[in-house]
Amino acid sequence: MKRVGTIQIKYMIAKNDFSKAGAAASNIKKTLRKLGISTDVIKRVAVAAYETEMNVIIHSHGGIMYLNIDVEKVTIIAEDKGPGIEDIEMAMKEGYSTATSQIRELGFGAGMGLPNIKRCADNFEIKSSLENSTIIKMSFNLK
Ligand SMILES: Nc1ncnc2c1ncn2[C@@H]1O[C@H](COP(=O)(O)OP(=O)(O)OP(=O)(O)O)[C@@H](O)[C@H]1O
Ligand SMILES: [Mg+2]
Known about the structure:
Bound molecules: adenosine-5'-triphosphate, magnesium ion
Mean pLDDT: 96
Order of helices and strands: EHHEEHHHEE
CATH architecture: 2-Layer Sandwich
Largest sheet: 5 strands, antiparallel
Distance between the termini: 21 Å
């Protein structure tokens, strides 16, 4: 069912495209500001969206991020083209990272992205396996 007043924006995220790093997250932040959403929610969405976007750029073959806003919540879904995550429990641990030394030189790879996303969101789901792509869904309550 398509609800009246629902905003949906789609962002294409390319693999290794550091020139656009954070572009989707900053557009999401700008969109929420225009709608007059509270700064507490905007801060949390901005951090989670940025970490999600960077993970798709760095760790995946590219993907799509969706922003959905309705009266009750802000939802962000990221779906990528693989290679997937072998051990989700491990990936969720603070400090766990498979980032290469090259990526670490760019300032990424502390292994804090996924735990941060989980902490920021009111609801967080991750689905992934090596046969499938990674799908991350998070929502932020507005009420
Ligand atoms: N979209 C993804 N596709 C494949 N693997 C992923 C994806 N997102 C995360 N991972 C795996 O989970 C690990 C942990 O992710 P997390 O975001 O917590 O840390 P990081 O990206 O390595 O470092 P940081 O986010 O602190 O820069 C990654 O190192 C990677 O192995
Ligand atoms: Mg990360």
